[in-house]
Amino acid sequence: MAEDPVNVNEYQELARQVLPKMYYDFYAGGAEDQYTLKENVEAFHKITFRPRILIDVSKISLSTTILGYNVSAPIMFAPTAMHKLAHPEGEVATARAAAACNVIMILSYSSMCTVEEVASSCHAIRFFQIYVYKRRDITAQMVQRAERSGYKAIVLTVDVPKLGRREADIKNKMIAPPLKNFEGLLSTQAVSDKGSYLEAYADSTLDASLSWKDVRWLRSITKLPILIKGVLTHEDAIKAVEAGVAGIVVSNHGGRQLDYAPAGISVLEEVVHAVKGKVPVFVDGGVRRGTDVFKALALGAQAVLIGRPVVYGLAAKGEAGVRRVTEMLKDELELTMALSGCPTIKDITRGHVITDRERLHSSL
Ligand code: FNR
Question: How many whole angstroms from 184 Cα to the centroid of ligand 1?
């Protein structure tokens, strides 16, 4: 493979070459048969374009706003756990790349750098993702620490009442590394007699009783806007709006939780229609190309989240790798907009794409 990757997928190969197998498998893997993991990428391949011609595209602008914040592109860094396994600088390097590219970073609850370390490392616009632990006091403290450290929103991930069955992690006896945020609050030393130490840690900490009333609890302990991550149906989208969230992330957790869950991009429109513009809708899973970002926006997303591409960039080349991955996606999006006749993000409409379902219906 070429030394300098020319697309995001080639960063995955570089990451595979530099990472210990246990860590690469942890980042790359999905749950059980990995159907959803593959479907996340393949679902994008089933959407094609209806490009418009003879529109002045000599100037293209990718800039947009997310929850009122001006950003350079409709791309955010998804929360992904444990960046120090990818690179010694961990989440601090990721945050610096987000700042350099002027995109939003969502810091994972399972980060290896603390919320304060990441906050003081740069001026990136940061959101903070949380899981709700059985020890509610710990989650409440984390929310307050994030609020104090200038994070702009809380992203409540709701698709992990239990950790998905990731068989590579079970085989590799994946470690549960120390999470500095919880030092002195909680032991991250998990005991496992069946395989993945990570799974054992998750089992001992996550609150599987989490329910809709807890969104109200979360709202009562923070002034920050709350996004809910892990919605895949119109029924839950409506409930989320009723619960007062400020945004919805359509996501199957990168195919790592419920296998055979649909690809986010396949159910995005269902959610967008249910929400009726009341709150912004975001989507993640399998975004690897600028064309994917365009397709998501055409189907009604305000922005996409990218998970693994960030981690692969970080593993391969640290902060510079994350910057490069982001720039590649931005460059590809810019080209897609030019070739589709869309000079600005607002010009991207539903009429610019056609899904396989629509093609099937029109040929019947
Ligand atoms: C994740 N994801 C995730 N989500 C979350 O809310 N909190 C977390 O700590 C993590 N950790 C995590 C680790 C790794 C290694 C991966 C790959 C994913 C899910 C993540 O936010 C996002 O939903 C998916 O990664 C999106 O899919 P792609 O872009 O990886 O295909």
Answer: 26
